Automatic annotation (TrEMBL):
The active site is at 702 (proton donor). This is 5-methyltetrahydropteroyltriglutamate--homocysteine S-methyltransferase. It comes from Leersia perrieri. One of its GO terms (biological process) is methylation. Binds 2 Zn(2+) ions per subunit. The keyword Transmembrane does not apply.
Amino acid sequence: MASHIVGYPRMGPKRELKFALESFWDGKSSAEDLEKVATDLRVSIWKQMADAGIKYIPSNTFSYYDQVLDTTAMLGAVPDRYSWTGGEIGFSTYFSMARGNATVPAMEMTKWFDTNYHFIVPELGPNTKFSYSSHKAVNEYKEAKALGIDTVPALVGPVSYLLLSKPAKGVEKSFSLLSLLSSILPVYKEVIAELKAAGATWIQFDEPTLVLDLDSHQLAAFSAAYTELESALSGLNVLVETYFADIPAESYKTLTSLNSVTAYGFDLIRGAKTLDLVKSAGFPSGKYLFAGVVDGRNIWADDLAASLSTLESLEAIVGKDKLVVSTSCSLMHTAVDLVNETKLDSEIKSWLAFAAQKVVEVNALAKALAGQKDEAYFAANAAAQASRRSSPRVTNEEVQKAAAALKGSDHCRATNVSARLDAQQKKLNLPVLPTTTIGSFPQTVELRRVRREYKAKKITEEEYVSAIKEEISKVVKIQEELDIDVLVHGEPERNDMVEYFGEQLSGFAFTANGWVQSYGSRCVKPPIIYGDVSRPNPMTVFWSKLAQSMTSRPMKGMLTGPVTILNWSFVRNDQPRFETCYQIALAIKKEVEDLEAGGIQVIQIDEAALREGLPLRKAEHAFYLDWAVHSFRITNCGVQDTTQIHTHMCYSNFNDIIHSIINMDADVITIENSRSDEKLLSVFREGVVYGAGIGPGVYDIHSPRIPSTEEIADRINKMLAVLDTNILWVNPDCGLKTRKYTEVKPALTNMVSAAKLIRTQLASAK
């Protein structure tokens, strides 16, 4: 019985690639240095999988930034603004597309389906010229082969690539991206030919858009693409991989009708209904089924007995020699290796499996199906499953009762938003177009050292508080000098917006090295929610009150919302997600009330990940949005009218949930806008009326580029064309923690200058 891994984490067990990338970007190391780190990581991953007994090992799943950007490079689809003149695409052009440079902005970045991973959105149009411009897929296949490891090269499939793209600037929004299919397939044919010549016998096309709600025209594109590629693929075994949800019946029918495709990969964790489809609709004779029974998106040890039972039922349909045990999706969405967690609670650790352990689980299941079951391994797994089900640390009856009692109310604030904004303005006395930032300020090397040493008990609590107080004072002074209207304390005490809160909530566990890539070199360390959640003590009140005491201007209390904490954590899988979210909402509600009692007049409850958690199928949207919006309202339903509640969202497509955003009933929302080419504003041009305060971001913080005053003023004027003056705020797209002060200060200076310029123009026009 064979085994397969869809993909593997890229950053390395100790974030080796992250540090190599940042060193290269800072000019401290060479391209050769970066390439050596990357090569060492790739080789170690391939060898690890080979040693574990995996038969179908993927290659070309490694990336310096993003696999969709890699495909853009492969196709030579470089936007004109990067002045690329042809040839093999190098680091300069590649990273300019990803991050921007001193003269041009980066390409749009958005969430990869419903994950916290971000991809770089291709910009295409009728005049886009395609050419084979990155040989990465072939080079990595050859690299593995030279080690004696025959891999399955993985490519983003041609149809999903186009469906995930957007019309380039200046191209009509109605332009059919699928009309470019005939233009990109010749490049795919060249890649396939080179892979065949290099000795490849299998190829994997990732076509995750097959799990979406597709129309007949879109489904026809899959048939057309793989029919056109049929002769090029002759002699190869072709795997089309889908993941993240059930595959709809019509998509299943289309996929299983493709003559050029040998094997189909299905996510049987988030796509449990696909199992019923395979059983009821039948499975093509002679084809392979790559069964994704090991969860690639969470860190819980697989229930091996349950998975084995599923596999045995599939074996009866597909045949023993045509069933391949696989992960539900790429393992890049989980942490790397549990071996590195030497300080994690031993009981909780026994319940977990990171990427390295999931590789072992996949192979153990394959062996068991082949009649070589490791009885001791399966017994240990069963004992861990039983331990988790019966552990008293998982359940808190008081929390469960409080969460259950929430179902009787919609938790709306007592007064409408218009009346609340009037009451708040009388108290805050803010100017037209008030300026603010999103929360974090640059996380310097010194600041990280202080937090690290405090955690390691190398400095005292007094020394730590003194250092953080000094940093807050510096951030407050900078904002006052810049003349920003509503201030933040900069979050110097926080390494991560979710981790910080999880560390102070019950029901959470934390890792030392459980890093997961979010985008580029940015890694996050998701908390593990293993039990019922409550707040034993105040979490932010001390720092917020301290910061407010340093200024007469309003100081925002900064919290992470319940939906974002949920979506950016590894969540328990033994109860519905909404029940866990309601528990978190009650904990945040207590913090909001304590901040208000402490004199904080503006409280921001970030819901950056609310859109991210939206199910991929439209039929499931309403239920998710109902409990997600309800969870946010629970947090602040009891505050006074004069307390201003902000929220923040970023790097997703918000237009399709704008009415749910309105229904959150926040007083002010700050929302990413500039990097996505002001896509958000189109919803207001189309007639949606928004009555609360809103701050669409005026510049992209994920690029080192510093926007001019004129550029920001132009953005503000575009916003004023569709939004009322009295509700518009001026702010960056997102928090500033990843930037340097040499970038932040001039960018914020220009932002404030632009706001003042427009205020003057508005006043003179009266």
